[in-house]
């Protein structure tokens, strides 16, 4: 892999460039984005230079799509004639089914392999990028079949994913979207709903002083941008609807049993999951 094109040099794209450099990658890294985003990514040391999509795709052995989901879909529809033959196109989209289906349909000159690095922040842009953003974080790949992981280009990507410190997980795109509706999307919406509820009913600033670190922890994700989440919610709405229904049902059960010992089991189950998340068991 001698040349990488990062399409979208925000937080994830710029962090990928920095992670590659830290891991020892010494090839070319070219960015495609708006002029301010390119300037920020160059200043951060994440890319060598900016280029047009056609120029970057024509040179790259690996094309990394780190845009919003809507823009990833649009890029996939148009990039194939620009690709260097045999190039690998992968992405960082938070939902996979629509992206993988479109990649299968439109990418012909190269290979498309869906991906999702499970890392991020509430802040955006290359100025927030970190070389260690993906370390000890899951990086999901969603091939149509195991043979897609055996091509030289795919093996090269997998090697670099591991070298930057990510933990590789292989899922099909439907499995991925169902799982993240619970592990990621539900968490975002629960945090947003909690913050919105508290904000609506405690509008006086002095009351917010009567809050412990629990509220701060629980509302961290509420800092996330709707512009970022709009496409995620739209492209995984069926799984998210099911996850929300399950969550509402659980909240109703809790509400109905505030005065009983029925909640002891809920506390135990919740604590068990919380421990597993923190210990990796």
Structural class, from secondary structure content?
A: alpha/beta
Measured distance between first and last alpha carbons: 35 Å
Biggest beta sheet attributes: 8 strands, mixed
State the total count of DSSP E strands: 8
Compute the number of structural domains: 2
Average predicted local confidence, pLDDT: 95
Radius of gyration using CA atoms only = 21 Å
The level 1 CATH classification of the largest domain is Alpha Beta
* Broad shape: globular
Q: In order across it, which strands form the biggest sheet?
A: 3-2-1-4-5-6-7-8
Look up the CATH topology of the largest domain: Rossmann fold
- Poorly predicted runs are none
| CATH-defined architecture of the largest domain | 3-Layer(aba) Sandwich
CATH homologous superfamily descriptor of the largest domain: NAD(P)-binding Rossmann-like Domain
Q: What level of helicity do the residues show?
A: 40-55%
Number of helices: 12
The proportion of residues in beta strands is 5-15%
Order of helices and strands: EHEHEHEHEHEEHEHHHHHH
Break the fold down into its secondary structure elements and pairings.
Elements: E1 3-7, H1 11-22, E2 28-32, H2 35-44, E3 49-50, H3 53-59, E4 62-65, H4 69-79, E5 88-91, H5 97-106, E6 111-117, E7 138-142, H6 152-163, E8 167-170, H7 173-201, H8 205-208, H9 213-218, H10 226-235, H11 237-256, H12 263-279
Parallel strand pairs: 1-2, 1-4, 2-3, 4-5, 5-6, 7-8
Antiparallel strand pairs: 6-7
Helix pairs in contact: 4-5, 7-11
């Amino acid at each position: 892999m001698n040349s990488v094109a990062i399409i979208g040099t925000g937080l994830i794209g710029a962090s990928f460039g920095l992670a590659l450099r830290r891991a020892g990658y010494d090839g070319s890294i070219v960015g495609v984005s708006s002029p301010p985003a390119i300037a920020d990514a160059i200043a951060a040391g994440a890319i060598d230079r900016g280029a047009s999509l056609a120029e970057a795709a024509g040179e790259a052995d690996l094309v990394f799509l780190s845009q919003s989901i809507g823009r990833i879909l649009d890029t996939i529809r148009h990039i194939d004639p620009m690709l260097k033959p045999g190039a690998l196109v992968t992405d960082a989209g938070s939902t996979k089914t629509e992206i993988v289906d479109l990649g299968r349909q439109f990418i012909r000159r190269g290979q498309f392999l869906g991906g999702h690095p499970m890392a991020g922040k509430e802040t955006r842009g290359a100025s927030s990028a970190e070389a260690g953003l993906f370390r000890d974080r899951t990086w999901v790949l969603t091939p149509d079949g195991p043979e897609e992981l055996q091509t030289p280009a795919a093996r090269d990507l997998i090697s670099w994913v591991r070298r930057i410190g990510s933990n590789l997980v292989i899922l099909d795109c439907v499995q991925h979207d169902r799982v993240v509706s619970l592990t990621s999307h539900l968490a975002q919406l629960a945090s947003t709903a909690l913050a919105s509820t508290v904000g609506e009913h405690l509008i006086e600033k002095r009351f917010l002083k009567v809050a412990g670190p629990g509220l701060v922890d629980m509302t961290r994700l509420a800092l996330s941008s709707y512009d970022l989440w709009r496409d995620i919610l739209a492209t995984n709405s069926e799984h998210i609807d099911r996850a929300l229904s399950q969550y509402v049902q659980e909240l109703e059960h809790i509400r109905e049993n505030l005065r009983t010992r029925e909640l002891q089991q809920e506390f135990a189950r919740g604590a068990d999951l919380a421990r597993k998340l923190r210990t990796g068991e």
